[in-house]
């Protein structure tokens, strides 16, 4: 009985810890108009052209980052599992590096390596800087993407499926595209979702590379206005949860993955 | 020239030899089983034929073409795995069509072929299902259909029945053999189950420690085992240590029992071997060796009664058919047993790779 009381108490503390700031933010974001609740702050945010510009910029960057991340991570994780299991600790270490190297260090490295007087002057053009920023995002999301995909690969018998496909005449492209990727799609989606969240909120890289991303915009509004940052935070949360819902839906709609979990 | 030729195959993993000097020639349409305990190299041989392992030395030829250096997807072989290995994200029909799509077979032809394969394995109604909606036996039939859809030159079956329960195993076994005969496809079947190997195959290769111990039709493997390993691995065997007399006239002693084989046996210690079913209860014409023993145990198995007794000090099993008019003998009774001298195999001392007879 005592144990039960304590576990309820722990749960309550947890809920308060997570929910209270959120409730406070929502409440505050509704108080722009004096004396009553209103959506004025939200209206201001949605009417601000910079919100639309920076947000759509970040979304496009996120989609590219996800595509590049999948192209890099899925074949790598697959090859490590299939052919070079001994390299696994090394590859895992590399994928974890972005967690211990601060983004500011990475981006300073980028600027030094790819500046206009370097061999590959990516920072000389907007497109080049966008590519550089996207690569930076891909690096930041590497730990999450790799973990997710590797876990997904663990759930299927990669070797036997590969051999079955090979004996049916399939080459590597077909095996990866038609056998491996569809079977780790749910894992890839969860990696993609994390990537999306990282890219939308990222500040340091975008700011130092001077690109019009959502992160710097958030910071700008936060520094200059009172209620709108709260509204922006709530919007960001809503988008995040919407993405999570989409992943749940995708998981639910694909029949074979539903079976594998049961 | 044989259709599928394996010539002097050697395979080592690191310093460990797994397959040694393996030769085998298989005719077109033949069903050959590789039989042996786990770790004997049978699966490695199969995987070398499939192209998943590269031989350390030796050659593999299919229909006169050297395929040793070809990748698996260039070999035109069909393979069925123990773990089914169906693609979980594809339906049964899509699984079967996979190899055809890779080959860029047109849609109409592909669909016709899938329908044909589905009815071949008796799953015509199941095309739209996903693998997880099928039982193990059904999944393995889909795997077979998928392997056969691309019309491979050789069909490789890697312990396809091991994951199934006993009843399904027997019915699928018969189905595999029936389909194989109907299509006339050259087949290699890997198993550790002697009953499967004996009942299915045109020829059986018994393997031990990477070496083919004996190659022959099931009847020959069982009746005339070439080595002690084959004799003991295939079927049950009574093994009795005996000493042949100085005269070399075929009179042997084991304990205080004397056995006259009636054919010359070189003097010294020998091992006698008898299948349980060649020994009978009581005397009979042609079973000229008669001995007595206490009945130590009786296993009633339905159609067969397995009796445990002793010859001298060696335990002896014998199998007799159950007959309604003759109840099984009682425990502790002294019974009389007989066997034809020609059914007693003489194995040399030591026991490894010694010719019988």
From TrEMBL, chain A:
GO terms for cellular component: plasma membrane. The lineage of its organism: Bacteria, Pseudomonadati, Pseudomonadota, Alphaproteobacteria, Rhodobacterales. GO terms for biological process: transmembrane transport. This is ABC transporter permease. It comes from Thermohalobaculum xanthum. InterPro entries: MetI-like (IPR000515), MetI-like_sf (IPR035906). Residues 55-248 form the ABC transmembrane type-1 domain. Keywords: Cell inner membrane, Cell membrane, Membrane, Transmembrane, Transmembrane helix, Transport. It comes from the Bacteria. It is found in: Cell inner membrane; Cell membrane. The keyword Kinase does not apply. Belongs to the binding-protein-dependent transport system permease family. It holds the Pfam family BPD_transp_1.
TrEMBL record, chain B:
It holds the Pfam family TOBE_2. One of its GO terms (cellular component) is ATP-binding cassette (ABC) transporter complex. Residues 4-234 form the ABC transporter domain. It comes from the Bacteria. One of its GO terms (molecular function) is ATP binding. The keyword Nucleotide-binding applies. SUPFAM superfamilies: MOP-like, P-loop containing nucleoside triphosphate hydrolases. Keywords: ATP-binding, Nucleotide-binding, Transport. InterPro entries: AAA+_ATPase (IPR003593), ABC_SmlMolc_Importer (IPR050093), ABC_transporter-like_ATP-bd (IPR003439), ABC_transporter-like_CS (IPR017871), Mo/tungstate-bd_C_term_dom (IPR008995), P-loop_NTPase (IPR027417), Transp-assoc_OB_typ2 (IPR013611). One of its GO terms (biological process) is quaternary ammonium group transport. PROSITE patterns: ABC_TRANSPORTER_1, ABC_TRANSPORTER_2. This is ABC transporter ATP-binding protein.
């Amino acid at each position: 009985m005592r144990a039960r009381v304590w576990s309820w108490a722990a749960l309550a503390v947890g809920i308060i810890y997570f929910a209270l700031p959120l409730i406070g933010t929502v409440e505050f974001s509704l108080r722009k108009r004096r004396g009553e609740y209103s959506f004025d702050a939200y209206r201001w945010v949605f009417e601000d052209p910079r919100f639309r510009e920076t947000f759509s910029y970040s979304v496009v960057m996120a989609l590219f980052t996800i595509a590049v991340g999948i192209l890099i991570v899925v074949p790598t994780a697959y090859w490590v599992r299939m052919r070079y299991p001994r390299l696994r600790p090394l590859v895992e270490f590399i994928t974890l590096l972005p967690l211990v190297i601060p983004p500011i260090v990475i981006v300073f490295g980028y600027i030094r390596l790819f500046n206009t007087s370097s061999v590959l002057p990516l920072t000389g053009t907007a497109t080049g800087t966008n590519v550089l920023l996207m690569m930076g995002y891909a690096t930041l999301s590497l730990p999450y993407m790799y973990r997710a995909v590797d876990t997904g690969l663990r759930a299927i018998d990669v070797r036997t499926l590969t051999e079955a496909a090979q004996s049916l005449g399939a080459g590597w492209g077909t095996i990866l595209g038609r056998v491996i990727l569809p079977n780790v799609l749910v894992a890839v989606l969860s990696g993609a979702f994390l990537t999306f969240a990282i890219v939308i909120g990222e500040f340091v890289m975008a700011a130092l590379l001077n690109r019009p991303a959502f992160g710097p915009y958030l910071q700008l509004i936060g520094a200059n206005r009172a209620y709108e940052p709260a509204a922006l935070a709530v919007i960001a949360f809503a988008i995040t949860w919407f993405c999570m819902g989409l992943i749940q839906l995708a998981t639910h709609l694909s029949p074979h993955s539903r079976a594998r979990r049961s | 020239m044989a259709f599928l030729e394996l010539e002097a195959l050697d395979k080592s993993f690191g310093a460990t030899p797994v397959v040694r000097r393996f030769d085998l020639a298989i005719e077109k349409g033949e069903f050959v089983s590789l039989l042996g305990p786990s770790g004997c190299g049978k699966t490695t041989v199969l995987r070398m034929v499939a192209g998943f392992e590269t031989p350390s030395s030796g050659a593999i030829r299919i229909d006169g073409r050297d395929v040793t250096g070809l990748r698996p997807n260039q070999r035109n072989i069909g393979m069925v795995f123990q773990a089914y290995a169906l693609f979980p994200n594809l339906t049964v029909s899509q699984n079967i069509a996979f190899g055809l799509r890779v080959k860029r077979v047109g849609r109409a032809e592909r669909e016709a072929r899938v329908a044909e394969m589905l009815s071949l394995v008796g799953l015509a109604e199941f095309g739209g299902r996903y693998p997880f909606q099928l039982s193990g036996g059904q999944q393995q039939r889909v795997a077979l259909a998928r392997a056969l859809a691309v019309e491979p030159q050789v069909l490789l079956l890697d312990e396809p029945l091991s994951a199934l329960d006993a009843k399904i195993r027997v019915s699928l076994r018969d189905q595999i053999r029936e389909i194989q005969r109907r299509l006339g496809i050259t087949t290699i079947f890997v198993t550790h189950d002697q009953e499967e190997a004996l009942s299915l195959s045109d020829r059986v290769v018994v393997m031990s420690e990477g070496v083919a111990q004996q190659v022959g039709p099931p009847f020959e493997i069982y009746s005339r085992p070439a080595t002690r390993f084959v004799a003991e691995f295939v079927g049950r065997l009574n093994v009795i240590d005996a000493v042949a007399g100085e005269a070399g006239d075929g009179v042997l002693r084991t304990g205080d029992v004397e056995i006259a084989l009636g054919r010359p046996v070189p003097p010294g210690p020998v091992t006698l071997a008898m299948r349980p079913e060649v020994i009978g209860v009581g005397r009979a014409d042609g079973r000229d060796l008669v001995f007595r023993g206490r009945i130590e145990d009786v296993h009633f198995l339905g159609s067969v009664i397995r009796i445990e007794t002793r010859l001298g000090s060696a335990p002896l099993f014998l199998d007799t058919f159950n007959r309604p008019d003759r109840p099984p003998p009682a425990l502790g009774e002294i019974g009389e047993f007989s066997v034809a001298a020609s059914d007693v195999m003489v194995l040399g001392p030591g026991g490894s790779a010694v010719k019988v007879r």
